[in-house]
Amino acid sequence: MKAAFLPDRGVVKVTGETARDFLNGLITTDMTLLRPGLGRFGALLTPQGKITIDFLITEAPMGHGGGFLIDCPKVLAQAFADKLGFYRLRAKVGIENLSDSHLSNGLGVLAAWDGEVALKPDLTFTDPRNAKLGLRILLPAELAQKAADLIGAELVDSSAYEAHRIALGVPRGGLDFIYGDAFPHETNMDRLSGVDFDKGCYVGQEVVSRMQHRGTARTRTVRVLLEGAAPEPGTTILAGDKSMGTMGSVADGRGLALIRVDRASEALEAGTPLTAGGLAIRITDPDELRLQQKQTVA
After folding, report:
1. What is the pLDDT of residues 122-141, one digit of tens each?
2. Residues forming a β-bridge with 221
3. Do strands 236-239 and 274-276 pair parallel, antiparallel, or not at all (unpaired)?
């Protein structure tokens, strides 16, 4: 089993007697289903339905003060806390950014994968996006080695986790898509248990529901294979001279790309090679892409 402390992840805590209802009215995941020891995947959207931040969230047991702990991009943690404060109005909730390692209650994120554990540390939950991503453990950075020893994992560099994430096809905001510019369907949140379509209203809900029911997500995140050198994230992907998407994160000959499904399907049928920055790439699963094209009606 491997474990890696993720320096790019932070933690925001939301507490208070109305915290569950407060969050449920804002984010894409159903907070009524959350319990201590469980995790959910979700996002806060713009009113136009685009992702401002995506995150994993768990409920803290009373022994840790209760409330909800949000595992999110560290660079956006304070802005996220401020945004939640903007929505708070008269709600009886407390919002705190715990990402600063110098805080007495500061928290970070340890990921652990490729194995089973007999004993789980406190504030541990299974990654809800894909079981193969393993566990998320919220803890201070200085306890990463101790936690890895406890679960019998080898502590490795975070780049190993990134390669594992990319191989599984799970996008990362800021690399595989731009915050404020992508809809949940484009980043496969609907397929990674990140949107609860049966819950009540939340910010951006009308747009997301319309895309779901009409099948109008023309752009999707797909896995690609790299032949030789790796193009930089953000590099335009071409089919011949026709733009069809952008490259995302890459590792060990694999990558993720945000691609127009219709254009990619046409290129596959025509046998047109794909390139990014002059470098050859191939779609990992062409059959999956063709299925997505059949499901898209616009």
Report:
1. 999 999 999 999 999 999 99
2. 258
3. antiparallel
